[in-house]
């Protein structure tokens, strides 16, 4: 990771897509990557770190990149990385500071059960937020935050097209208000996945 990071930090490097899926990246490697991207944040458009065991401290390092107004990342995949609600809160806080570029966000498979979905809802409600695809599959989420998500999408309905809430602790009644958005002519939501771990 240090060798790769040295390349990415070079101001002449214009890598736009970086996929490092299941590469056993450690916190130390993620810190080196974040440092490189802080030095040269303008070109990267896609970053996939799925399947690496990144703790909350790694998410906080990455957040220092995302908060930079020169960062124009459009797709960020962090599925099954092992971080918790604390790391997610730092990530969403960074995106709220620089919300204009991201189009896809995958946080699936991380233990976010204690994460306050109202923080994510505040990001989605921002008219500058242009996220089109959001995956929160298998995150131990409950229906408590669904009303906040619904309100956010209603207030900023022009962008979100796909929302995946599958394999969380949700009932159909929890997501009913989100399902209703698909019939709203002002809302762009086309696909809502919510297969639940519960039987209700």
TrEMBL record:
This is Ribonuclease inhibitor-like. The keyword Nuclease does not apply. Keywords: Leucine-rich repeat, Repeat. The keyword tRNA processing does not apply. It comes from Carassius auratus. PROSITE patterns: LRR (PS51450). It comes from the Eukaryota. Signal peptide: none annotated. SUPFAM superfamilies: RNI-like. InterPro entries: Leu-rich_rpt (IPR001611), LRR_dom_sf (IPR032675), NLR (IPR051261).
């Amino acid at each position: 990771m240090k060798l790769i990071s040295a390349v990415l930090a070079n101001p002449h490097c214009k890598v736009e897509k970086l996929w490092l899926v299941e590469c056993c990246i450690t916190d130390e490697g993620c810190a080196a990557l974040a440092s490189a991207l802080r030095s040269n944040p303008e070109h990267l458009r896609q970053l996939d770190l799925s399947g690496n065991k990144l703790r909350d401290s790694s998410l906080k390092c990455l957040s220092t990149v995302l908060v930079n107004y020169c960062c124009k990342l459009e797709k960020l995949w962090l599925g099954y990385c092992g971080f918790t609600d604390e790391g997610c809160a730092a990530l969403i806080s960074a995106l709220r500071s620089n919300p204009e570029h991201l189009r896809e966000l995958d946080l699936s498979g991380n233990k976010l059960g204690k994460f306050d979905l109202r923080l994510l809802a505040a990001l989605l409600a921002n008219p500058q937020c242009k996220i089109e695809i959001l995956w929160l599959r298998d995150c131990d989420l409950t229906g408590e935050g669904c009303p906040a998500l619904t309100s956010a999408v209603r207030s900023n309905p022009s962008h979100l097209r796909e929302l995946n809430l599958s394999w969380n602790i949700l009932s159909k009644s929890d997501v009913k208000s989100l399902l209703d958005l698909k019939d709203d002519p002002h809302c762009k939501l086309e696909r809502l996945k919510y297969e639940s771990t519960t039987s209700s």
